[in-house]
Every structure is written in structure tokens, then in C-alpha cells.
Structure of Heme A synthase:
Amino acid sequence: MAITALIVALLPLSMAWISKDTSRYRKLVWIAVFLTFDLIVFGAFTRLTDSGLGCPDWPGCYGLANPFLAHEEIRAAEALQPTGPVTMVKAWIEMIHRYLAMAIGILIVAMLAVAWYRWRKSRQAAYSPGYPTFLFFFVCLQGAFGAWTVTLKLQPVIVTMHLLLGMGLLALLTWFGGRQDQLLRPASAMVARTRLATVRRLALLSGLVLLVQLFLGGWVSTNYATLACTEFPLCGGKIVPEMDFEHGFHLWRELGKTAAGHYLPFSALTAIHWVHRNFALVVVLVLGWTAARAWTMAPLRPVARAIVAVLALQALSGIATIYLSYPLLLAVLHNAGAAALVLLLTMLNYRAKFLDDAPAAQ
């Protein structure tokens, strides 16, 4: 497993090494951002194709490094249940997800090693080891939740936390990349500090609102509640349908079961879906207002435009997912849109912060 992950990581490591960028370390960070975004999207594909238990143990597949070696065990399981959860295709989807996750872990270990080595030699701020050390422990926590996702058989709260930690890792790496950019090209701009302070507060609020929506969206996905409402804006022909919030939002329970072990009622799935759908309106309003205020400031305008575009596409893809009965591609794109919003809001937050901290242009 480790050798496979190292082979996967060699390509991005080589890209950083041969880069003509003035800072290979900065390049390595942004490559990790790109791959983490890809991992989140592929993780959504893994979840949406029910491949999370394609290999029912962890970290290997039936104790082996890849599905090729576990061919007999997988085929035996597939013969008993032809549609899964264990099939050869699903096993490969799950293992590719694991290989990519381990490769990102290797990239973060490389960042950590370079940071400590350069810091001890030069004491340059760009190589301060505190942040990459924190990233290392964070990605270890993420890996632990990845393992528990399998060993606890897709328990919804564990899978949702795994998703949130993945989004958190993307945000942390994006912030780190922004920090490296600013250290190489310090910000200096004529900006209205009062307006900038307002944008900073709104950007932080937007991040918190998006975090809540990410949890709600993850809770919908991990409980398979996407089609609990098949019309919009009504749900079951009503504005406020029959809903069971107690069972729907009880966190510690098995997939498809109540805390008492009974089958989860449909009204609980309706509650999960309905809350996510309606909180989306809060997200659109808060993020839209934040982007509108940031749009008035030239240094922040490109990110504000991108947020507006992704927010609009995200709303449309969410509605289309309902009307088109949850097509796989659209559902994956909806997850990708959520990751893009995390990335863009992180960029807005760090750019506003560094502009606020930077000296005004002379």
C-alpha cells in the first residue's frame, strides 16, 4: 500500500521539483490543493456509486495491497451479492480513492520535511514549520475517519465527519497556499479599510454558514435522503411536509436505522432533505451579499465573481438533481461545487486578511 501511494505521489512531487516557479515549496502546496480538490470529488463519486465498502477492510483489500491480489475474495463476495457492496469495479473505485488520499498524505509529509529542514538552515518565514506540522496531524485525523468509515460500515455521522474534514483539509491547504503567495509577493494596495473590515466579517460569517450547509449536505448524502423530496419548491405536495426531526437528526446510529435499531422512517429522510434544501436559501443570501460587497473592491473582485458564478451553478445543480432523479454526474458536480465554494471562500478570507494587514501603497 505504501509503495503504491508513493508511486502515485511521485508524479506531483516531480512536477514540483522540476517547476520553474520561484518557489518549489509554494508549487508543492498548490499541487496538494489541486489533488485534495480532486480527492473530494472522487470521494463523492465513491460514495454516490456505493463503493465505500468495495473493500470491506482497511487499509488494504482483504488484507492485500490491491484488488488484483484480492481477486478470488472479491469474486466470491460478488457471486453471493452481484450488486455489491463488494464487486470488482467498486473495489477499484474504493482503492483508487485510498491511494490518492495516501498520496496527499505523502505530499504533506514532504512539506513538513522541507519546512523543518529549511527552517533550521535559514529561519525564513516561508518555511515556518508550525503550519505544516498542524497539517500533518490534521491529515492523520482525516485518515482515521477514513478507516472508521469502513470499519463502522458507513455510519452516517462518521462519513459526514470524513467529508467535513476533507473540506477542512482543502481550506487549510488553500490558506497555506495563499500565505506562500503573499510571502513571495507582499500585498500593497489602496483599499478602504472600513469596507475591508466589513468584507472580512462577512467572509467569516459566510464560511460558518457554508460549514453548516456542508454538514447538512453530507447528512443528506450519507443517509441517502436526496430523493426524499422529488419536487421543488414543494415536497410531497406541501410546503411543510410531514417530518421526523428526532430520528432524522439523531447523530449516533447505524445507516438506515434509528438509535433503537428500527428502520428509519421516510419522514426522517424528508426532514433531512427539507432542512438542507431550505438552508440553501440562507447560503445563497449570505454568500451572495458577501460577494456583492467584495465585488466593489478591485483586489477582491475576481474571487467575488467566481463565488457568484459557482453559487448560481450550485443552486441550479441542486434543483436539477431533484427534477432529474439524482443522475450520478450531476450529483458529483454538486459535490464539486461545494468544494469549489470552500476553496473560493478561503481565498476571499485570506486575501481580505492580508490586504487588511498589508501597509497601504505609497
